[in-house]
Design brief:
Elements lengths: L1 H13 L8 H18 L4 E5 L3 E3 L4 E8 L3 E5 L6 E16 L2 E14 L3 E5 L3 E4 L2 E4 L3 E6 L4 H4 L13 H9 L5 H7 L4 E7 L3 E3 L4 E9 L4 E7 L8 E6 L8 E5 L2 E15 L3 E5 L3 E10 L6 H7 L2 E10 L3 E6 L15 E9 L3 E3 L4 E11 L15 E3 L3 E9 L2 E14 L3 E5 L3 E6 L4 E6 L3 E6 L47 H29 L1 H16 L1 H8 L3 H20 L8 H10 L4 H19 L6 H21 L3
Parallel strand pairs: 2-10, 12-21, 23-31
Antiparallel strand pairs: 1-3, 3-6, 4-8, 5-6, 7-10, 8-9, 11-13, 13-17, 14-19, 15-17, 16-17, 18-21, 19-20, 22-24, 24-27, 25-27, 26-27, 28-31, 29-30
Helix pairs in contact: 1-2, 8-13, 9-10, 10-12, 10-13, 12-13
Length: 648
């Protein structure tokens, strides 16, 4: 792209003889710029930016930006010559620009100079993966106070060879297109679409629903919100985990070229026949469009570059409909239990010879591709001389593009109670193969068992699969033999006065009295420590709200963990600040907290935690267990801090 830009600029300069002498220097500068840009793409970058010069009575915005990394605890550098009048306000952005994916978090502050002069803004710092990063420094020239009207005008350039001042004033009077007008123009530039790989399937057969985003190559885009997918009524669904490092691909749609990226994907297994609806999804994005001035002057387009307008868009896919065919009744086996796909059926036994009361393991393994998780344990009968316990299930199933693939194994514990020679009958497993439209039945082999030893004293009649059994080690101990000898009786005598029990009862009131005094002093001490008491109460509240998140933390389930942390944080803020869930937003929470004199650093940490949860839930980024533990502790401490600082 940069090379094309250089060639275009070169051609335009050749058409203007006035600048022919500047050509060599101009092209050299562009080549240096291109080489520099090519080395920066994809690197972690932490920087601060602000206007180079401002008036002493003019407030300006200082942006602290971290790109292509997750950071925590951002801190401003030394700014003794400026007053912070607003912020920090944080925003998270994930952008697709010309096939390159970048992520960034920006913390914005509004500063106002205290006096005229040239002043330095020190290096900001942030923690990234446990390493402290520092930004660049800035020098800002603070000039004399100007009127508001003068601040909006551009300075006249006496060296302008083409007298651009009149054109600049005319350009300032041009009205920027409204967001509504731009949204209409961008109708075909950004498309959110649901794609279903199959329009007709059998009941229980897998289909894939993919929610895709199509972006015009000349548009920058960031996701502002991503609503959860509605419940898939009529389907059993499994979400396919997306590659966090996936890149957009170039495709042609409706005769136009787009960058395509999958936002989320689900494998669906219909549970009823007929026309079943696949729900639509919604996503909010911000399109970054460069708006050119109406002037056709080359220098306006090149040096000013037009204006970049941020256009918010709410996108929604159409719902899909799938035709689901009922499984055929013709040829359906009696033992069919709903397995749809392509499977193997295997059985094995740990030993064909044994003694009474010695356990034997009979294993049944079902493997292949299909609705594996919906397959239940097979039911069958064993010889009456065996006690059969409920099976132990082992699952090794993965969910990918091909659907559920892997195996499911059931291990049955058999306890022989009578000696003899027995036969374990063959068993059958039936499934429906949607590729052929037919049922398939697999039969397992028979097993001959030889049991030796004396009949067991622990015989439990029945011996059928699924019957309730006693623990093997205590079977047979529920009947006691009749005693045939005369027992020896002893007299339990002695006086109660002076005994251990008597002394204990006599001293109990005095001991209880001293315990009550100690408890009262403890309560008085805790009552005097108001801050400590409130903080302990807040910690208990935080633990209660974040108890579910802690369970997901232990299992390293990142998505569920950040979902629960986000729920707990927003739920606490809504209850504490008396804000309805419909009115909860970063801005409303920040306004309420500032009104209740909460410290700015506490508000900054809270907004940072919320942004971290949003990025972890909706953006393709990775996170380690240590970072999840750190965010969990941050959420706990934030709730405790807010309990201390929020004024009723």
């Amino acid at each position: 792209m940069i090379v094309e830009f250089c060639i275009t600029m070169n051609n335009r300069i050749q058409q203007n003889p006035f600048f022919a002498g500047m050509k060599a220097r101009f092209m050299l500068c562009l080549m240096v710029l291109a080489l520099s840009c090519s080395q920066v793409i994809g690197q972690v970058k932490f920087s601060i930016s602000a206007p180079a010069s401002v008036a002493v009575n003019q407030a300006f915005q200082l942006n602290v930006t971290l790109e292509n990394a997750n950071g925590s605890n951002p801190r401003l550098g030394a700014i003794p010559d400026f007053q912070v009048v607003g912020g920090p306000n944080s925003s998270t952005s994930m952008q697709w620009v010309n096939g390159n994916v970048t992520q960034s978090v920006t913390y914005s502050y509004v500063l106002k100079p205290k006096q005229e002069g040239t002043f330095k803004i020190g290096k900001a710092s942030i923690t990234v993966n446990g390493v402290n990063m520092e930004s660049n420094e800035l020098n800002i020239a603070v000039g004399k106070a100007v009127a508001q009207q003068q601040q909006q005008q551009r300075a006249y350039d006496p060296f302008d060879p083409f007298g651009q001042q009149q054109q600049q004033q005319q350009q300032q009077q041009e009205q920027q297109p409204s967001d509504g007008d731009m949204a209409k123009q961008l109708k075909d530039a950004v498309i959110f679409k649901l794609e279903i790989n199959r329009g007709s399937v059998y009941e229980g057969e897998m289909l894939t629903a993919t929610y895709k985003l199509y972006i015009s190559p000349n548009i920058g885009l960031s996701i502002s919100k991503m609503d959860k997918i509605p419940a898939f009524e009529g389907f059993w669904s499994q979400e396919v985990e997306m590659d966090p490092k996936r890149q957009p691909t170039t495709v042609t749609l409706n005769g136009k070229q787009y960058k395509e990226i999958d936002l989320f994907k689900y494998n669906l297994y219909p549970q009823r026949s007929g026309s079943v609806k696949v729900p639509s999804a919604e996503v909010g994005v911000v399109a970054q469009v460069q708006v050119r001035s109406r002037s056709r002057n080359f220098f306006d387009d090149f040096f000013n570059g037009g204006r970049v307008q941020q256009v918010p868009l709410d996108l929604k896919t159409d719902a899909g409909v799938v035709s689901v065919k009922a499984l055929p009744e013709n040829g359906k086996p009696d033992d069919f239990s709903g397995a749809v796909g392509k499977f193997n059926f295997e059985t094995s036994i740990s030993s064909k010879e044994g003694k009474t009361d010695d356990p034997i393991t009979y294993s049944v393994k079902i493997s292949g591709t299909g609705n594996l998780k919906l397959i239940e344990a097979p039911k069958f009968k064993m010889p009456p001389a065996f006690e059969v316990y409920d099976p132990k299930t082992k699952e090794n199933i993965s969910n990918g593009a091909a659907g559920l693939t892997g195996s499911k194994q059931y291990d049955y514990l058999l306890i022989p109670r009578q000696p003899g020679e027995y036969k374990v009958d063959s068993h059958v497993f039936s499934y429906f193969d949607p590729t052929t439209g037919k049922y398939v039945t697999i039969t397992s082999p028979e097993y001959a068992l030889k049991i030796t030893g004396a009949p067991s004293k622990n015989m439990n009649s029945g011996g059928q699969v699924g019957s309730s059994k006693q623990d093997i080690s205590v079977l047979g101990q529920d009947i006691r033999y009749i005693k045939t000898t005369v027992p020896v009786f002893t007299k339990n005598g002695g006086q109660f006065f002076g005994s251990t029990g008597f002394i204990g009862m006599y001293g109990a009131p005095a001991l209880l009295f001293f315990l009550l005094i100690g408890l009262r002093r403890r309560n008085e001490t805790m009552a005097a420590d108001v801050v400590g008491t409130k903080r302990r109460r807040a910690i208990k509240l935080a633990k209660k709200r974040l108890s579910v998140a802690e369970k997901h933390l232990k299992t390293n389930d990142k998505k569920a963990f950040y979902d629960e942390v986000s729920r707990a944080t927003w739920g606490y803020l809504g209850d504490k600040l008396n804000i309805d869930m419909a009115g909860l937003s970063k801005d409303s929470v920040e306004d309420k907290l500032q009104a209740r004199a909460v410290k700015p650093e506490t508000i900054s940490k809270l907004l940072g935690l919320i942004n971290t949860c949003e990025m972890a839930l909706y953006a393709p980024v990775s996170d380690e267990h240590t970072e999840m533990k750190k965010n969990y502790d941050t959420a706990m401490n934030l709730i405790a801090d807010l309990e201390d600082e929020i004024k009723a």
